Amino acid sequence: EAQVTQNPRYLITVTGKKLTVTCSQNMNHEYMSWYRQDPGLGLRQIYYSMNVEVTDKGDVPEGYKVSRKEKRNFPLILESPSPNQTSLYFCASSNPSGMGFNEQFFGPGTRLTVL
Amino acid sequence: AQSVAQPEDQVNVAEGNPLTVKCTYSVSGNPYLFWYVQYPNRGLQFLLKYITGDNLVKGSYGFEAEFNKSQTSFHLKKPSALVSDSALYFCAVRDGSGTYKYIFGTGTRLKVLA
Fold this sequence. Notes:
The complex is a heterodimer of chains A (about 120) and B (about 110). Chain A has about 120 residues and is mostly beta strands.
């Protein structure tokens, strides 16, 4: 089954404790992206990656890191989480077409709480 | 700068009636426009997109959207609403000028009343 998987699905942590949220897709997509969803703010893009070793900032990259060492994986790293990073996080992937990128496939989400 | 506006936090419609969920956008270059739906405790699912061509695009579950360049709008429509259409709807735009950033709207909660 074509899918985007994220782990963990739920995480409660404390301020300053480094964490990684994994994202993996089995569709051989070149484009991957991370978003956070907050009430009243919709989805905001954190980082995206056009392909292996190619990443770029979205609108809200502060406090986050990403890496793209393999095409299928795109982990999100919070080196020193803070309470304002409490949110619902989504990973997504997509493939380019002749006229631009096709629709994104989203993972099920990771609900992160930072105390 | 790119932006997307969904002016209504919530839209209520009676089952069987037509529905419209509004979206306006601002981008430099040609826009790539998308609608996604989110059901409770689920990720987002693609509904439809406008890249080029006909201004009226048809998508999943009977939804359609009309691209209006002069009004910079991309409203989502359905001729006859179902209770199962009740969900959170997001409009998104990708700037066609060369970046691969996506901007999403704040979402509109659609409630279809039986």
